[in-house]
From TrEMBL:
Membrane-crossing residue ranges in chain numbering: 23-45, 65-84, 105-125, 131-149, 156-173, 185-208
The name this protein goes by in its record: Uncharacterized protein
Top-level taxon: Bacteria
Key words of the record: Membrane, Transmembrane, Transmembrane helix
């Protein structure tokens, strides 16, 4: 395929993704709501326990990692299931050219964030910094699809990035928080505010909005 043909094919895929943006926006809402509710439940107890027991942990570091990997697995499986159902309805394969372009865009930040976060927990036992890396890289992954995804997802990406940066500076500037006996409470608070609250707000905005967000190529 020549450079011109490759460019035309690239533009065709972007146009196809933009035309389906309202569909992907609607599909993403149930998975976002499920992940958000699970995140709020998972983060609520550790935050409350740390606040009432001078920062003591209610679970071990590996348990924190395992719990969030399970939540990630549930939300991801639901998202794939919904995408597969929609692809079947349209008579298209799940892993289409559109899907491959989206995967190429958001896989690098997700891979870096996931690996660095796990390394921070397993080797450095820094849960809070791991949670911040996860939130920031997830936001960057959403923003990496800005050229063809719904505006609501782009706004969600910016919300993750800005909330993650604000939480980072608050954590870095507060030595009392960083010197707690365990950082399970602060880490759970970061996860609850980002993957919990932001996902629930996003899902509610999609469910209650009258019209899908308009998507324009930049």
């Amino acid at each position: 395929m020549s450079t011109t043909e490759a460019a035309l094919e690239h533009l065709r895929i972007i146009r196809s993704l933009m035309e389906k943006a309202h569909i992907y926006r609607a599909i993403s809402a149930p998975a976002a709501l499920t992940g958000g509710v699970l995140a709020l439940i998972a983060s609520g107890w550790p935050v409350w326990h740390a606040a009432t027991h001078q920062g003591d942990a209610v679970m071990c570091d590996p348990c924190f990692l395992q719990m969030w990997l399970v939540i990630l697995g549930i939300a991801s499986a639901l998202n794939v299931l919904l995408l597969a159902k929609e692809a079947k309805r349209r008579g298209q394969p799940l892993v289409s050219a559109d899907m491959r372009m989206a995967l190429r865009a958001f896989t690098p930040p997700l891979l870096v964030g996931g690996c660095v976060g796990i390394g921070l927990i397993v080797f450095l036992h820094n849960l809070t910094l791991a949670a911040l890396v996860w939130a920031l890289c997830y936001g960057l992954a959403l923003l990496s699809t800005a050229s063809f995804s719904p505006r609501s997802l782009v706004r969600l990406g910016w919300a993750f990035v800005l909330t993650g940066l604000a939480a980072f500076f608050a954590w870095a500037a507060c030595s009392d928080v960083r010197l707690l006996a365990s950082d399970l409470g602060p880490a759970s608070l970061v996860m609850g505010l980002t993957f919990g609250v932001l996902h629930v707000v996003y899902a509610a905005a999609v469910f209650f909005s009258a019209k899908p967000a308009e998507v324009n190529a930049e």
